[in-house]
Specification:
Alpha-Beta Plaits; Dimeric_a/b-barrel
């Protein structure tokens, strides 16, 4: 299962937040971005509960003010179809 997270954080803390996120389990990718959100995160795990656990840990990272979770739907097209 793959889930993308868009996170916002307190300005000036992006580098610290990104470093903390990199330490969490099931994190595949973390990038600082510009716009409404500050950080893009890709989570991948073989069980929904593992993704849920990682999201919970991510939301507890200091200086994160909000998150949006975007779970991938298999069978809807795109390159992810090749995995299932």
């Amino acid at each position: 299962m793959i889930t993308y997270i868009l996170a916002t954080c307190i300005p000036g803390n992006e580098k610290e937040v990104i470093q903390k996120i990199k330490e969490l389990p099931n994190i595949v990718e973390v990038n600082g971005i510009m716009g409404k959100y500050d950080i893009f995160v890709k989570i991948q795990a073989d069980e929904v509960m593992k993704v849920d656990f990682t999201i919970g840990k991510l939301r507890g990272v200091p200086h994160i003010t909000s998150t949006v979770s975007i779970p991938v739907l298999y069978g809807q097209g795109g390159t992810i179809d090749d995995e299932k």
